[in-house]
């Protein structure tokens, strides 16, 4: 069974850091675009970062630029989201998502472009 499983969420004070991990299992994801999305209560799901399957091309949403870093380890089928200088407005349920892509420089930032999702991990940032 193909699945994505997130981990690393938790409660942190503003200014702190967390590293989220997403483990892919059931198949290799070395040709998949991987993205991190978040959804806060009563808000739409938004992409915070995405990475091409080669790892050479990345996308960051403006609110997280300079604070979050996405990376991947294709040999281990893992994708990470390093989150620094966290703010209360970063509080949300964070999801990883995957979709196959033929071009190693491609990334996607819309939820509808992904076809595989994890269950999410909660990140709460206290002020």
Sketch the topology as an H/E string, one letter per element.
EEEEEEEEEEE
Estimated helix fraction: under 10%
What is the overall silhouette?
Answer: globular
Distance between the termini: 40 Å
**pLDDT averaged residue by residue:** 95
Number of strands: 11
Taken as a percent bin, the fraction of beta residues is over 45%
SS summary, helix count = 0
Radius of gyration: 14 Å
Uncertain parts: none
Largest sheet: 7 strands, mixed
How would you portray this structure in words?
- The protein has 127 residues and is mostly beta strands.
- Helices cover 0% and strands 50% of the residues.
- The protein is built from no helices and eleven strands.
- The strands form two sheets. Strands 2, 4, 5, 6, 9, 10 and 11 form a seven-stranded mixed β-sheet that branches. The chain has a four-stranded antiparallel β-sheet with strand order 1-3-8-7, with no helix packed on it.
- Strand 5 and strand 6 form a beta hairpin.
- The model has no long low-confidence stretch (mean pLDDT 95).
Condensed summary:
By secondary structure, the protein is mainly beta.
